[in-house]
Amino acid sequence: xxxxxxxxxxxxxxxxxxxxxxxxxxxxxxxxxxxxxxxxxxxxxxxxxxxxxxxxxxxxxxxxxxxxxxxxxxxxxxxxxxxxxxxxxxxxxxxxxxxxxxxxxxxxxxxxxxxxxxxxxxxxxxxxxxxxxxxxxxxxxxxxxxxxxxxxxxxxxxxxxxxxxxxxxxxxxxxxxxxxxxxxxxxxxxxxxxxxxxxxxxxxxxxxxxxxxxxxxxxxxxxxxxxxxxxxxxxxxxxxxxxxxxxxxxxxxxxxxxxxxxxxxxxxxxxxxxxxxxxxxxxxxxxxxxxxxxxxxx
Length: 298
Prior knowledge:
- The protein has a 5-stranded antiparallel β-sheet, sandwiched between helices. It has a 3-stranded antiparallel β-sheet with strand order 1-3-2.
- It has 10 helices and 13 strands.
- By secondary structure, it is an alpha+beta fold.
- A hairpin with a 2-residue loop joins β7 (182-186) and β8.
């Protein structure tokens, strides 16, 4: 649980973090990191390493095997702790709040960022930890076009790449498209501004047609950026008095992707199905797609 990670994170010292970082780095080359490799990277005496590893195992931050040799791995709890450590050192976050969302492929926390130069009020932010690869590498590859050509990858690689992809595309979209601003990205984690309003599926809209039109207008802007969300639903659209914000971008594809129209049609049908079911609004998906793809009027 992420609450346990936060508690444990506060107890880690510099040697603990050096060991976790050493295992992280070496997992690029080893399924199980040999003790000899870890001694070389951390430059710790064997007795110190053995003592520290024992404590990290009790905290469930390190997994050990004795077959065919003594070796180590880390998993998401340790990776979370390493990302948090970097964010704290950078001044990206100064306090961590409650868990506000958890799914198959992410965990989301509230946090606080101190104002620049200590002036003004602290800023509420969101930390999103990617979890791609937690359940099945095969399933992740099946639904992630950016992993299709990669024969071998670890959960670290899958989660880190997903976070970088999402950070990169959100920076590319912001501020022209209504998405939260990315503040920082490290490893498998993103720090971003809090999305405005509340999720669409939780909200009863007084003027649903206006919000549907506004969402379609945002999809037009996204398309003109050469991007298709490809995982759009009422669960990743925030609505507020001034409009919408769209979140959850790791599955995006470029508009020149061979299945781009198929992905965009799925997004459009998901959106129209929701508004049709909840508000009896009827739109032709084909016409909406034509509208989205239409060139901008001069």
